[in-house]
Each structure stands twice: as C-alpha cells, then as structure tokens.
Amino acid sequence: MSTFSRNQCPFSPDWLLLTENSFCKDFETVFKRKDGTLFTGITSIASFTLQGLPHYLCVTRDITDRKQAEEKIKSLLVEKEIILKEVHHRIKNNMNTICSLLLLQSQSITNTTAITALEEAANRVNSMALLYDKLYKSSDYTEVSVKDYLTVLIDEILENFPNSSSIKVEKRIEDFELSTKRLQPLAIIVNELITNIMKYAFTGRQSGLITVTAKLLTNNPYISIEDNGNGLPESISFSNSTGFGLMLVRGLTEQLNGKIRIERENGTKIILEFPK
C-alpha cells in the first residue's frame, strides 16, 4: 500500500468538491511502480481541517490480485454460457433427428394405427425440441416466456393437420415466464389436447374455433383449451380413460402437482391449474 502526502497526491484538488470532514469516493487507476511495472490501484481521498487549513489524504491500495480474480470469473461465466448454448443446440438437433426418423418410419408401413402412433410420437418430440430451440436463443437458461413458447408451439401443432386452414385459433396468452422444468410437461399436455381437438372435435363440420388461454391466477399458471366442436362424451374423463393421450395428460398433470378438469358446454373446455 502506498501513501501520498498532499503535494504527492496524483489527483488535483481543484476539481474536487471538498468540505470539512468530507470523503470522496474511491478512484480505480493504473499506477506505475519505481521499477516501471504497472499495477491497478484504488485511491481513496479524504479531506480534513488542521489548524484552520484544509488538508488532503490520498491512500492507494494495490488490487491487482482482485482484478485478476474478477477477470477469471468473468471468463468462466462466458465459457459456461457457451457450453450451455452448445448443449441445448445439440439436444435440439438430436430431437429433430429422432422426429425425422419417426416420420420416416411411418412412411414405410401401411398399418394406419402404427402410422398414427409414430406421427403422434414425432409431434411430442417436436414440442420438446422447440423448447430447447428457445433455450438456445435465450440469455436465460432457467425460464422461458410462456407467450413466446406456446404461440409458436400451437402454430406448429396445427400445421400437421390438413384441415387447419378452416379452424380459427384465438390465443389469449399473457406474457409471463415459467421454468423449463414446468414448461416441458406443459408443452406435451398442450400438444395432446390440441391434437385431440383437431382429430375429433370438428368431424363433419366445415369450420371451428379453438381458444387457448394462459395466465397467472394468484401467481399460479392457469391454462385452458376450449373448442366449439362436437364435445366429449360424458363417459370420457381423465380418471377413467384408457386412451394413451389422456392417460399421458393425467400423468403429466400429476408431475406438475396440478389439477385438470373438463367443462362441457357448447363444446369442450379443459382447464389445467398448477403451482408455479
């Protein structure tokens, strides 16, 4: 640590607004030692009155080691961000490959049940790949905008159906964020519900309406997917269904520690609520 007298202080007091017993903030500067080497220091300047005359005290501390440690931490953080981006990018590419393989396999068989199963599996994988694409492009790897994610996901699901041009979709999605751990099961649930609507709700109809709502109620996510189609039979529910899609939705709802219910009026409305 180096100490300067009033005459040796590296800062001119002319530009300092000094009063009795006042202290100025620290100044970080590069200094040169007697041997010519440089070091980063913080200089603190204080003023005081002695025998009626103002005096100034300058104290400089060598913080070279601290600066080097800070730079190392910054470098490690940048490296971590690059690695995370690469991991998300590779996961997304692997999922896209799996999706393509499933679709390719579906084109090589003739059994309609097997074809449907492969195509639905590919759509589920695609919904997860979309999440990793959002993570790859995001600066935050823990949370993603629900509005940005669900808006694109819904459009991609509808593109898989030839009758999508006759179906109107209203998206009432508020802009809030969810952790990736919550979004992944939510994405598969949304995929299952919209897929079922597109397959069954508008049979024999020329047009239809799907309304997707996402918002926070008392700080917890509220998701509803509603259609004005033919409606679900009273015999079908999440608790007794043997169909794979509804069983999957029920299992993922339990994973979210949430509750899901069906309302039947002028079509079907499915409401999902779970803690954030």
Q: Can you describe this structure?
A:
- With 276 residues, the protein is an alpha+beta fold.
- It folds into three domains: 2-62, 2-Layer Sandwich (Beta-Lactamase), CATH 3.30.450; 65-141; 142-276, Histidine kinase-like ATPase, C-terminal domain (Heat Shock Protein 90, 2-Layer Sandwich).
- It has five helices and eleven strands.
- Strands 6-8-9-11-10 form a five-stranded mixed beta sheet, with helices on one face. A four-stranded antiparallel beta sheet has the order 1-4-3-2, covered by helices on one side.
- Helix 3 (146-158) packs parallel to helix 4 (180-201) and helix 4 (180-201) packs antiparallel against helix 5 (244-255).
- The longest helix is centred in the N-terminal third of the chain and has 43 residues, at 64-106.
Compile the SSE list and pairings:
Layout (H helix, E strand, L loop, with lengths): L1 E3 L22 E6 L5 E13 L2 E10 L1 H43 L5 H26 L5 E3 H13 L8 E7 L3 E3 H22 L6 E10 L2 E8 L16 H12 L3 E6 L3 E6 L3
Parallel strand pairs: 6-8
Antiparallel strand pairs: 1-4, 2-3, 3-4, 5-7, 8-9, 9-11, 10-11
Helix pairs in contact: 1-2, 2-3, 2-4, 3-4, 4-5
